[in-house]
Design goal:
With about 220 residues, the chain is of the alpha/beta class. The protein has a single domain, classed as Rossmann fold (3-Layer(aba) Sandwich). It is about 30% helix and about 35% strand. It contains six helices and 14 strands. It has a seven-stranded mixed β-sheet, sandwiched between helices. It has a three-stranded parallel β-sheet with strand order 8-10-12. It has a two-stranded antiparallel sheet with strand order 2-3. Helix 2 (about 30-50) crosses helix 3 (about 85-95). The longest helix is centred in the N-terminal third of the chain and has 20 residues, at about 30-50. It is globular, with a radius of gyration of 18 Å.
């Protein structure tokens, strides 16, 4: 699996990440969601550079323009609920894409540890298509791994896989390198060095779902 860390290069992306992490900016849930959307747009743009393209003749009022455009069939998939703003940003780049959603959550054990449970999935036929699977945080990598398995079970095997996870732990990156299909790509904006005993990323940014949509029960 190839890993692309866009945060390693100086760009406005790092400004958006800094605001996502900043507890003062986090008081504004609208800005938090908008920054995730902005990251989605940036990731979508960068992914578009890797797609197969072909020349299309476009008729203008004065003639014909020959323009190279991407021609892969895209499916944008997201883990609910924290990934929704990120999904929207990616979709603004690939507005003709199909969409898939998986509801996944941690179920903790009394003696420590947790499993990933899924309760809902809606998915088109993804066989042979390019799937972009997005989630805001990548702590252990378990949620993405389980979501990918569910999507493949429901919709078939994609031809290409791009994972978009703005904040990732180093441990999760190493885990996914071992478990994701050969030829897949992980796109991140930052790789953090530490996980707590409860598998929270440090420095991370907190609970992205709560910050975007309010606290859950």
């Amino acid at each position: 699996m190839k890993v692309v860390n866009l945060g390693e290069h100086s760009s406005v992306l790092n400004l958006f990440v800094s605001q996502l992490r900043d507890r003062n900016f986090q008081k504004d849930s609208l800005r938090f969601r908008m920054n995730l959307q902005r990251l989605g747009q940036i990731f979508g743009y960068e992914i578009s550079k890797t797609l197969d393209h072909s020349i299309r003749d476009v008729v203008t009022p004065l003639g014909i323009a020959n323009i190279e455009v991407p021609d892969e069939k895209i499916v944008v998939a997201t883990i609910l609920r924290a990934g929704l703003p990120l999904h929207e940003g990616i979709l603004q780049c690939f507005d003709g894409a199909e969409n898939a959603f998986v509801a996944a959550y941690r179920k903790y054990h009394k003696n420590g540890g947790f499993d990933i449970h899924t309760e809902y999935c809606t998915c088109p036929d993804i066989t042979g298509k390019t799937m972009i699977l997005a989630d805001t945080m990548l702590a252990t990598g378990s949620s993405v791994e389980v979501a990918y398995e569910v999507l493949c079970r429901e919709g078939g095997q994609p031809g290409k896989l791009h994972l978009v996870c703005p904040i990732a732990s180093a441990q999760a990156v190493e885990n996914l390198k071992k478990k994701m299909p050969a030829g897949s790509t992980l796109w991140v904006a930052a790789i953090d060095p530490e996980l707590t005993g409860h598998a929270y990323i440090v420095p991370g940014l907190g609970d992205a779902g709560d910050l975007a949509y309010g606290a859950k029960l």
